[in-house]
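Two entries, shown back to back:
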Amino acid sequence: MTPRWSDPVRHAYLPTEKGRDFFGVLAALNAWGDRWLADDSGAPVITRHTACGHDTHAQVVCSACGEPLRPDDVDVRTGPGYPAHLLRTPRCGPASTGTAVRR
């Protein structure tokens, strides 16, 4: 039987390294959705850490000390890869000098 246009042949998705690296973003979005959009019946998707067997959720933590990162606890500044031509534009403000910017 020939598949219809609405029933295409599907193959397994094998993510690239870039796709696997995106997992943290998807896990963070899922955790945000669970916090702000889940109803009283609970989260629609549960993430289980297979290494320890516990249900878990994504959390952004400091790579140095492991403490959770919150907006009020971080400063953002330009890094060495920031485009030089943008450093010269007035709209960059304090970040153009490499100093911390707190919003």
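entry 2 starts here
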Amino acid sequence: MLRVVVPIVLLVVFVYGLIDLIRTDARQAKGISKPAWIVVQIVLPVLGAVLWFLLGRPRGGAAASPASYRHPTAPDDDPDFLRNLELRRRNQAEADRLKKLKDELDAKERELGNGTGPTRGPESGEATGDPTQGTDEVK
């Protein structure tokens, strides 16, 4: 019975270690590179698997680690960057529009303050030379 159980346990350890190694992200393999770990496990089947579990395997399990790793993205692929870029563009356009309106208002106030403002007709309602001015009738 022991002659059957021991080889089966050794085979299970080897296969489980090799599958775990293959499924692990190459950037998370500790000690040596992932291809080197594969060679170690094939050359030294049981010892390679034990070494992988003790020295090479990332802590917390291979399945949990890739989800926590976030690679840098290019600015044009990052939705947050694009959203902020659009917001900044709108804010800048609004600020430019408000500045232009303020400059126009300041210019008109200076004209009125200097007395060189646009000439207006009589404000008392007197008739001017143009009989159609100030009437709402349609001819």
